[in-house]
Each structure stands twice: as C-alpha cells, then as structure tokens.
Design goal:
The protein is of the alpha+beta class and 82 residues long. Helix content is 21%, strand content 7%. It has helices spanning 49-53, 69-80, and strands at 24-26, 31-33. A two-stranded antiparallel sheet has the order 1-2. Strand 1 (24-26) and strand 2 form a beta hairpin. The longest helix has 12 residues, at 69-80. The two termini are 22 Å apart. Residues 1-29, 31-64 form the 4Fe-4S ferredoxin-type domain.
C-alpha cells in the first residue's frame, strides 16, 4: 500500500529528502506522496523513512492504493531499473 500525507501535515520539510524514490513533493497546501512512486521504502529500508522522521505522525497507509509487499517490491524494481 502506498502512503499518504494527511491534513495534519505542518510542512516541516523533513519527509521529502528522506524518500529514496522521490515520491514526496510540495503540494498546494501540504506535502503529497505520488502513489506511483511510493514503495513504503520496500527495497531500500525496513520501514518507511518518511514515517520515521515525521514529527506529527501524519503519514498513514493510503487505503486507496492497496499493494502487497510483493507488488511494492516489483514497483521498486521498475523504479530503480532506469
């Protein structure tokens, strides 16, 4: 499952540089996560790095983008193959 950033985001800028896939970017009001690039850090780390550094705990799983660990690993391979 991809992750998402909720309205509780305080735009502190700590999550964006932690994303190894470049899935996090500034949105109109808060940061956003591109579900096409988010692998929950599968293939890079044991845990999502954005969740680890977020001071307000506003990065839950996105129920609109359900993916298994195998699907996330496949996406990781596609993203890093270039």
């Amino acid at each position: 499952m991809a992750l998402m950033i909720t309205d509780e985001c305080i735009n502190c800028d700590v999550c964006e540089p932690e994303c190894p896939n470049g899935a996090i970017s500034p949105g109109e009001e808060i940061y956003v996560i591109d579900p096409g690039l988010c692998t929950e850090c599968v293939g890079h780390y044991d845990e999502p790095q954005c969740q680890q550094v977020c001071p307000v705990d506003c990065i839950p799983l996105d129920p609109g983008h359900k993916e298994s660990r195998d699907e996330l690993m496949e996406k990781y391979h596609l993203i890093t193959a270039a």
